[in-house]
Amino acid sequence: DAAEKGGYEHYMRKEIHEQPVALRQTLSGRIDIERGDADLDVSFPQGYLESLEEIQLVACGTSYYASLYAARLLEQFADVRTTVEIASEYTFDGGRDPWRTLVIAVTQSGETADTLGAIRRAGGAGARTLAVTNTLGSSVTRETEDSLFIRAGPEIGVAATKTFASQVTTLALLAVEIGRKRGTLAATDARAVLENLRELPGAVQQVLDEEARVLEGAERFVDADAFFFVGRQFGYPVALEGALKLKEIAYDHAEGFAAGELKHGPLALVTGETPVLSVLTEGARPGETLNNVTEAQTRAAPAIGVTDGTVETDSLDLALEVSEIGHMTPLVANIYFQLFAYHIADLQGRSIDKPRNLAKSVTVE
Ligand code: G6P
């Protein structure tokens, strides 16, 4: 067991630190800078992507938040209506021609019963189906027409970490490919996205190198009453995912909010004992988000922000830096939230790899 953890005390911390390698695997051989295109091993029928009317993503837990991130990329690059649904809530409504709706099951394990149920309903109604998974030969790959592997390598910790980054990255590549096929993403724009993806592993490594600062922050705030995560645009799913990590492994009260929604209710919960963690980077409307954070600070909340230097962050209690890599910057910010949840949980002596009441994959609906 100790050998498998490679010197780390927990699989979760090992898996957080594996992200640069996992992301390189995810991207390997899939970027064609010259053509300005992604090269995925899925062959859709001739003309299928061009005639696509809608994309629906179905998923649970962390995979659901990865899907929320990816849906924005799909809409922007491929100019196709994209919805995301919690798998257990899903019913298929595919319009007049169900085949022109591509339903994508996003699932690390490929075994989540809710997600399998949803994709079965979609397939049964005549939609085209695709699995985005980490697990070769998993059940979802037998339920869908095509499979796309995120190649993150085995993830043992119950709380998903490296697979979130690899899911978003794989779906970003898919968004580029669909956008190129449909003619909605110009080669120069695609090249810029692909360059950002190429820079992603290095940007993640820079965050990992700052772990000591995250530990200091965790020590400072470990006794907080609750933790609020806020973000806009691509920062919003990252806020939701950041809060989920804390709930799962630290058992602390944590919530993710769209930053603009703070003033529509959650602000009533804010006190000097509720740190607010925010995404203040490219792709997450940092200026507006900072205004919302300031409103929380006015109510005495300590503020921790992840910044790429776009906005002035002197007023924060703790500013954590990331490199700006376009749409993928909030994904890099998420690594700080993973480390923060890990250290908050570790300081409290939690059972990090096997949190109470949770399972790595849930095979009941
Ligand atoms: C469980 C795990 C979560 C995971 C979710 C979806 O609840 O504890 O970490 O995000 O299942 O799993 P999947 O394998 O479908 O991505």
Automatic annotation (TrEMBL):
Subcellular location, record wording: Cytoplasm
Reaction catalysis annotation: D-fructose 6-phosphate + L-glutamine = D-glucosamine 6-phosphate + L-glutamate
Biological process according to GO: carbohydrate metabolic process; fructose 6-phosphate metabolic process; protein N-linked glycosylation; UDP-N-acetylglucosamine metabolic process
KW rRNA-binding (keyword) present: no
EC assignment: 2.6.1.16
The SIS domain, residue ranges: 40-184, 217-355
Cellular component, GO annotation: cytoplasm
MF term (GO), any: glutamine-fructose-6-phosphate transaminase (isomerizing) activity
Keywords: Aminotransferase, Cytoplasm, Glutamine amidotransferase, Repeat, Transferase
Protein's UniProt keywords contain Hydrolase: no
Active site, per annotation: 360 (for fru-6p isomerization activity)
Top enzyme category: transferase
Function, in words: Catalyzes the first step in hexosamine metabolism, converting fructose-6P into glucosamine-6P using glutamine as a nitrogen source.
Assembly: Homodimer.
Protein name: Glutamine--fructose-6-phosphate aminotransferase [isomerizing]
Origin species: Natrinema zhouii
